[in-house]
Amino acid sequence: MTARVVIVGNGMAGARLAGELHAREGDRKVTVLGAEPHRAYNRILLSTLLAGRIGEPDVELTEAAGHGVDLRSGVPVTAIDRSARQVRTDDGERIGYDHLVLATGARAVVPSLPGLDPANLPERVVPFRTLDDCRRILAAADGARSALVLGGGLLGLEAARGLATRGLATTVVHPREHLMERQLDPAAGAVLAGTLAGFGVTVQLGVSATGVATDANGVRLDLADGRSLHADLLVLSCGVRPDTALAQAAGLTVRRGVVVDDRLRTSDRSISAIGDCAEHDGVLTGLVAPAWAQAQVLADVLTGTDPLARYRPRPVVTRLKAAGIDLASMGDAAGGEPGEELTFADPARGTYARLRIRDERLIGAILLGDNPAVGTVIQLFDRGHPVPTDRRALLLGRALGAVGATPAASPALMPDAATVCQCNTVSKGALVRSWRSGARTVDAVVAATRAGTGCGGCRDAVSGIVDWLSQAESVEVTR
Ligand SMILES: Cc1cc2nc3c(=O)[nH]c(=O)nc-3n(C[C@H](O)[C@H](O)[C@H](O)COP(=O)(O)OP(=O)(O)OC[C@H]3O[C@@H](n4cnc5c(N)ncnc54)[C@H](O)[C@@H]3O)c2cc1C
């Protein structure tokens, strides 16, 4: 009998899983039910779309939806009947499964403030999670002169930078004392605020919002210190909450997310969960690299390709996708765990670096501003390799020959195991192997390995490696 796999959610995790299942041999029917009316798209590129650096066609995901995959968009699942092994859709259809996968992602949090009804937000007040949200922000920004962003985390700052790029005077309101407090220390937050100011983004820190009012002329955001800020639109970037409603109603174990084991199984062996909705080992990931790693493990387990495959979390590197601002933060960057501390700050140039080292290994780092050592620092952190004796090279980004090389600087010096694409966990060795198997252009290498198809931050590094391989080959041929 053909095994029936039903995937709820056609976001980044669900679409990737369908593609992974499609790519593996075997007789099975895969049904993907997605609430959003669109084809699967790359959610993380919405910031780049908002900034006008790419167009809508560029965010479409190229995951397989071919033979053996029944893809239905605009079809929300409303209930799971575990005893009958069926899901029910909002148009009343019942679809049977042998294995069900929840990939329902997360929803933007709408803060409970007077004037904000989450079910009926005013036109000028928009969260930032979906393609439709992005369209609404762009529609509201069209002809607007000013914008407010509530929330100074990663996404709020990416939205603010994008709106400023479009010429809007933009103010970020953040209740904490410094920006991106989950990834940065106060000194880095201050340097970042200075850099943003140079791009036309003003920051109001340490003050909460107390209410919102809108009328035909714009939005008013009331603050706890008695002030009110006015603008043409308000973007809400106040965090996300895993979408666990279906799992909860079906009686699965749910804490903050749907609880899964190393095989991504929920408390019901016939149901798995991956991506932003899943909680593994007490951790919610909220990032694409773990979601895609989980999709791969689950596909291996479900198809029997590797029944022993297990999900093992990897160290996380966060990068800000904002034009003109280079920022990478990793590990215990903001402090907490004991360790050796090295910092360098040059606020006038928008530069800040902090390395946290224990037992000769990086346990955390913040690199803000132009620092040519960023690739090396990420590799050292990712691989857990010892740091060089002269730490200044990492901190100041100079004399890199002594400690290694950034992918762009010299691919020849990179170890094969170095991870080039963090989103898809693609090593330099995998890129070289795809080249040797016949992929001779950047596009061909990307298609073979998927490197560069997540946030796109490694595209230059991939191009550098392909250039290096081409040159190495032409030298060999002329010899
Ligand atoms: C603007 C932005 C920028 C980001 N930048 C980065 C970044 O640089 N790096 C990074 O790693 N991560 C980034 N993220 C986070 C990343 O997008 C998420 O981690 C990723 O999308 C998680 O994938 P997912 O499939 O679990 O969830 P989602 O992509 O949210 O997909 C879940 C899907 O399930 C659907 N769904 C929910 N309930 C149902 C139901 N009952 N029936 C049917 N369908 C349902 C939803 O409609 C949605 O389409 C960013 C997010 C945003 C919004």
TrEMBL record:
Residues 4-282 form the FAD/NAD(P)-binding domain. Residues 317-371 form the NADH-rubredoxin oxidoreductase C-terminal domain. Its cofactor is siroheme; FAD; [4Fe-4S] cluster. Pathway: Nitrogen metabolism; nitrate reduction (assimilation). Pfam families: Fer2_BFD, Pyr_redox_2, Rubredoxin_C. SUPFAM superfamilies: FAD/NAD(P)-binding domain. Residues 420-467 form the BFD-like [2Fe-2S]-binding domain. Coiled coil: none annotated. Keywords: FAD, Flavoprotein, Heme, Iron, Iron-sulfur, Metal-binding, Oxidoreductase. InterPro entries: BFD-like_2Fe2S-bd_dom (IPR007419), BFD-like_2Fe2S-bd_dom_sf (IPR041854), FAD/NAD-bd_sf (IPR036188), FAD/NAD-binding_dom (IPR023753), FAD/NAD-linked_Rdtase_dimer_sf (IPR016156), NasD-like (IPR052034), Rubredoxin_C (IPR041575). Gene3D superfamilies: 3.30.390.30, BFD-like [2Fe-2S]-binding domain, FAD/NAD(P)-binding domain. Belongs to the nitrite and sulfite reductase 4Fe-4S domain family. PANTHER family: NITRITE REDUCTASE (NADH) LARGE SUBUNIT. This is FAD-dependent oxidoreductase. It comes from Micromonospora parva.
